[in-house]
UniProtKB/TrEMBL annotation:
The keyword Iron does not apply. This is Type I restriction-modification system, specificity subunit S. GO terms for biological process: DNA restriction-modification system. One of its GO terms (molecular function) is DNA binding. The keyword Magnesium does not apply. CDD domains: RMtype1_S_EcoEI-TRD1-CR1_like. Belongs to the type-I restriction system S methylase family. InterPro entries: Restrct_endonuc_typeI_TRD, Restrct_endonuc_typeI_TRD_sf, Type-I_RS_S_subunit. Keywords: DNA-binding, Hydrolase, Restriction system. Its EC number is 3.1.21.3. Residues 127-293 form the Type I restriction modification DNA specificity domain.
Length: 348
């Protein structure tokens, strides 16, 4: 449903957005929904009756200011992540598709006349010193991990996986009852239709150190063998050829098709020397570290927004001289995050 504020005050849009997203408003919206047990909807006629208490100007401006700053900072972080994701994928394409990884002199290998050798198994030329092989030579699939049933751990559902990009949505906490298990630096791929076709794939990076998280049984988990190959795994899983292979290997009835882990594990590909894989991980580490830091900051800012705005609107804290007073601890410091200068990244 599209809601447009027609009083000419653009700040009212932000206030209404903030109001509709606080827990008390969400509960109220749930109560006024109508329909059967299978189809429940929120009708415009009911939304028109929703009471909204408008605060005085000081509180109104404070709510809008906080909401806008946090929202803008989250949008900046997301934009930076998109740029970094594009840079990582471009570098992957240069190194492992066009074979223009840096040679011994730091020049692009193939473009600088590096020797190419026809590989019979792959039916194509690959750089000298590379081999044909299978993905399972580089990655474990669904590595064995253990969580005691009933223990509360971080949970990632299918909706948390992006169709573009590498970062998951914020984690949930949930008692373990089953599902695929993973740790930081693992990569998860959705294996069921339409999620696989849509490209749902993500790097696990928001868990605590050594923590084991879990998610849908419809995930396939990749982990580097001997090396941490998170950057390579992310880019490989989003590469056109690998995705086409994965989709072509789906089996099952219409609407419930899945791909088996073995089908991905047996994907044929050029296998680079260990040194080149390590160099790629080192070259892209700063991209993925920054993406993870931005995603963690977004989660923290979202939690701060969801905690602070309801208290402001409900009168649990007061506003004076554009500062929030009350028992708020480090709120001022946390809000300082949104004032950081934008980071600029050049092209690869």
């Amino acid at each position: 449903m599209l809601v447009r504020i027609d009083n000419g005050n653009s700040d009212m849009n932000y206030f209404i957005n903030a109001f509709l997203n606080i827990p008390s408003s969400k509960k109220l919206l749930d109560r006024i929904k109508e329909g059967t047990t299978t189809v429940i909807a929120l009708y415009q006629r009911e939304l028109n009756k929703l009471p909204i208490a408008l605060p005085d100007d000081l509180l109104f401006n404070s709510v809008v200011d906080i909401y806008k700053k946090i929202r803008n900072k989250i949008e900046v972080n997301n934009k930076i992540n998109q740029e970094l994701e594009a840079m990582a994928k471009t570098l992957y394409d240069y190194w492992f598709v066009q074979f223009d990884f840096p040679d011994a002199n730091g020049k692009p290998y193939k473009s600088s006349g590096g020797k190419m050798v026809f590989n019979e198994a792959l039916k194509r030329e690959i750089p000298e010193g590379w081999e044909s092989g299978l993905v399972k030579e580089l990655f474990q699939f669904n590595p064995t991990l253990s969580i005691k049933k009933g223990n509360v751990s971080s949970y990632i559902d299918m909706n948390a996986l992006p169709v573009n990009g590498f970062m998951t949505k914020p984690l949930q906490k949930k008692a373990f009852g089953g599902g695929m298990k993973f740790q930081n630096d693992d990569v998860v791929i959705a294996r069921i239709t339409p999620c696989l076709e849509n490209g749902k794939t993500a790097l696990i990076s928001l868990l605590d150190d050594e923590e084991i998280g879990f998610g849908s049984t419809e995930f396939i988990v990749l982990r580097g063998i001997g090396l941490k190959l998170k950057s390579f795994a992310c880019c490989l899983s989003r590469s056109e050829k690998f995705r086409k292979h994965s989709i072509s290997k789906m089996t099952g009835t219409s609407g419930r098709k899945r791909v088996k882990a073995d089908a991905l594990a047996n994907y044929k590909m050029p296998i680079p020397p260990k040194e080149i894989l390590e160099n790629f991980e080192n070259a892209t580490a700063v991209f993925f570290d920054k993406m993870t830091a931005n995603t963690k900051q977004n989660q923290k800012l979202s939690e701060l927004r969801d905690w602070l705005l309801p208290m402001l609107m409900n009168g649990q804290v007061r506003v004076a001289h554009s500062h929030v007073d009350g028992n708020l601890g480090e709120v001022e410091q946390e809000l300082g995050m949104v004032a950081e200068d934008d980071v600029k990244y050049g092209k690869v």
